[in-house]
Amino acid sequence: MKNLIKAARIAGKYTCKLDMGREALEGVCIDIDGGIPVMVSTDGHRLCVQALEGVTPSHKLTLGANQLAALAGASSAKIEGNYIEVQAIAGQTSVAMRDTAHNYPDWKKVIPTDCKGMSYRVNRRALIAQCVKLTKACKNHDKIAKAEYRAIRKEIEAELVPVRAREKYLKGELSTARKAKPKNMELIASLKKLTEEWTDKKIKLNADKANVSNDAIGPVFSAVLDFQGSNRSIECGRDTVGFEPETVDALLDGETLSTLQHILGGIKIALNVKYLKEALQGLSGEYVDLELRDPLTPIKLTSEGDTMVVMPMRL
Question: Mean pLDDT throughout 7-23?
Answer without folding.
Answer: 74
